User: Fold this.
Amino acid sequence: MKNSRIKIAIQKSGRLRAESINFLQSRGLVFDEESNNLIIPCEGREIDIISIRDDDIPEYIFRGAVDFGIVGKNVIVENDIPVFGLENLNFGICNLTVAVPENSDIQTIGDLNGMRIATSYPRILSQFLQKNRIHAAIIQIRGATEITPKLNLADAICDLVQTGRTLKENQIKELLTIMQSQAVLIGAKPEPFNIDL
Amino acid sequence: MNQALITPEIPKGTRDFLPADMAKRIYVMEKIKNTFVNFGYDTIETPVIEYAKTLLGKYGDEGNKQIYSFDDNGGRKIALRFDQTVPFARLVASNYQNLPMPFKRYQISRVWRADKPAKGRYREFYQCDIDIIGTKNLLSEAEITRVIYSTFNALAFEKFIIKFNSRRLINDIFASLGISKDKFTDVLRILDKLGKIGEKATENELGKLLPKQSVEDLLRILNIKGSNQEKLKSIESYASKETIEEVKEYLDLCDSFGVPEKNLILDISLARGLDYYTGIVFEVYLTDIEIGAVCAGGRYDNLCSLFSDKEFSGVGVAFGFDRIVLAMEELGMLKQIKLNAEVLVTYFDKESLNESIKIAKELQEAGINTEIYFEPASLGKQMKYADKKGIQFVVICGPEEIKKNEANVKIMQIGKQKSIPRTQLVSYLTGFKKI
Assistant:
């Protein structure tokens, strides 16, 4: 049986969840935001809000399991899945940044040569290094990269920076920005997001 | 004893390959092979030597002259493999009961031709073939076209043209121009040389065989320009409906396979110089370099019948491996190909040798191609060795490093040295591969 309900995926937990809910409510959707269900139906609409890991959202859309999703631009670029960006949502604004310990000898992009860079964004970082002809070791980890220099696991990190507070708390400073990111509404087709469909 | 030395030389038209060349050749061959495998082709092998009678008379007069043949020690007439298609047909004729039909296979091996050596033309060279037999469905021609397209794509060629023609189309055109059947082969031979000898010479040669009007009409047809569909439209009146439909169907299938129109061109003057093609024929040319056809083949309906009463229709192409390598070399497409070793572990002294071997073993087990230097020579000498081989990393393993439980890696390309905890060596080196 064909399920004709429109499905919109948002982050299950994390920095974009609350604002994603705000955005959907601002477009007139009414749903129980406190619910622990992973599928929350909208009142009076043939629409479901789906909560999944943000890394999985582009894949779900590409496979046709959900119709729309809200993710950080960084997630779309890192996963390299052909989905369509429909609208910049002007929240979750942050930079993907290469940062180094405050007392580091690394002063310029060229100093990254030969260094260990810890990141959860190996693809974006790799493309950046390749473009700039930097030979460095990408140390792939899943999160909390800011701790790696202290543990002598990396000489630099490449991570999302929103306010810069986390860096500061860990005596790390920004060296350069690779890309700017924000929450983006994505879909499987280049059609405008029209939930009154 | 004062014995006369033998001059270390090899026969004309043959080549030795040193490791740097072999690395490039293997890279190209793997790309081609992987494309074949990706389309589900399996491989076979046939002997280098065949009975001469198996090969003679299959490649036209020119081909016959170029077959290497000799009497073996038992006085049997033997010939060296001239191409892979005829031995393949012979193999099928004696094994078809055991083969799944339709049968498709790829084959990459050496062939020998006593041709006049020239740039990109050797007496010993590789062919990379695919053939599909046991079906007359045009889907097989279209698949082969797609394999050609994918192969040149995989090799990163940006500009190449797959020229094709239909033997039936040519036959129809000849018949409609009143050219008698007994002259078809001779006319085809002349047309095949059109690109080489030019239009004027072709006109003269044809004039010896055909009336003036036929020559004029023929050349006019050959000169028709436009898209494939436009060309077909212009020659519609010279060919039967079925013939035109066949070419149209082939083009539609190629379109479904995603072969771009710009890479696939109907060339009515294309008349492969071999005797056994009966349907669609192909030739592939690289736009950026004049090196001749880099791939050629077509439909052969009658070949297996020489070896068996059973009829096998087949279609196949041979990739000119050596020409492709030469073209890629000249176009600078193989510059990044390195020798196998990625890491050299130094041999500092006898005390540290054990640790050097341990490091090398650890890296090898992690899938990093690693070698160890064979002598406790000066570091400079070992670095020079690494440099000469284009090795990317040198792991320096001396008493100092062992004491500190560190690994000291020199990244050759940037000349920088980096110390890291010994336990991080594998993740550090694989970290560079992520780029």
In short: Chain B has two domains: 19-330, 343-434.
